[in-house]
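Could you please consider the sequence and fold appended to this message?
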Amino acid sequence: KTEREEKVAKGEDFDASKVFFHEDKPADGAWMPKQVVDFMIEELDKGRFYIICPDNDVDRETDNLRMTWTMQDITQDRPPLSRWHPEYKDKFTAFLEENKSKK
């Protein structure tokens, strides 16, 4: 059972501030389930097949560049998650800077 259900079953109050994750206190950058579903429906209504849900931490352009870099980990035989790897993180930063559109 969830902590909330356990508290309710015992007749106790549930305090959302004392749990790791709760919709009333989302993690930084996290989307709540309802936001994800609403976004998915909007994208499906647009006829989109791939649905990439934003995370509130970065803009869509940066998210797309991160995904491009990650796919290139495979095609360029880099270590997995190389943007955090000591030998590649400066190259990743340069990749972002070179490929981000100037606004």
Q: What stands out?
A: The helical segments are 3-10, 33-45, 60-75, 89-99. The CA atoms of residues 8 and 14 lie 7 Å apart.
